[in-house]
Amino acid sequence: MLFVYAGLMVGTMYLYWELYTRPFRPLQEAINAQYPNSMPRVIGGKHKSHREGSKPTLRVVVTVDFDPIPVAAPEKPDSPQPASEAQPSVSASVETKDEDRMAYTEGMWVDERVHERFRSLLKLMQQHHGLDAYEFVEIFLEYRRPEKTSRMLSSTRSKAEWFQAYPEAALATPSQP
């Protein structure tokens, strides 16, 4: 009887996981193909969907091989940066007790690799899943340090704000299955 119960639980968990992850599997596979060992996790839907005003959100969590949290901004050159090289800004730094978790905010200096990863992930989202059904997109970049806690940089913005910051991602066309 115990084996039947265990089999039923395993079957239920398999069915739930299959239905829960199937819509996002092509996107997860595309992210993993472009960034091997990134361990992508993609979740979509409404947070607290029973509440009125809950917005549909697509969340992508990937592991990166660099520390996405800025230690300090580099020295600024005397001449202003040309507009073509200016980095897109996103929402001044949020003070947090946990220095290993930080939300990316307007005017925050970050490594160019952060912008490249945001841009690339947005293109992949647009190509392999589409963003039409979502109002907000959350991207989490996690850096796993050996023998220390992971460091994570997150950015949550509306779809329009993402495409304003990274217009080339809006031009990505969906791939045919």
What does this structure look like?
This protein has 177 residues and is an alpha/beta fold. The chain has one domain (21-47, 54-68, 89-170). Helix content is 33%, strand content 19%. It contains 5 helices and 5 strands, in the order H-H-E-E-E-H-E-E-H-H. It has helices at 2-21, 25-34, 112-128, 159-165, 167-170; strands at residues 41-46, 56-64, 101-103, 136-143, 151-158. The chain has a 5-stranded mixed β-sheet. The protein starts with a helix and ends in a 7-residue tail after the last helix. The relative contact order is 0.17.
Q: State the separation between the terminal residues, measured CA to CA.
A: 43 Å
Shape: globular
Structurally, how many domains make up the residues?
A: 1
Give the topology string: H per helix, E per strand.
HHEEEHEEHH
Q: How much of the residues is beta strand, in percent?
A: 15-25%
Strand order of the largest sheet: 1-2-4-5-3
Mean of pLDDT: 82
Please mark out the parts with pLDDT under 50 across 5 or more consecutive residues, or reply none: 78-97
What class, by secondary structure content?
A: alpha/beta
Q: Kindly provide the radius of gyration, computed on alpha-carbon positions and rounded to a whole number of angstroms.
A: 19 Å
Describe the largest sheet. 5 strands, mixed
Count helical runs.
5
* DSSP helix fraction: 25-40%
Question: Total strand count, please?
Answer: 5
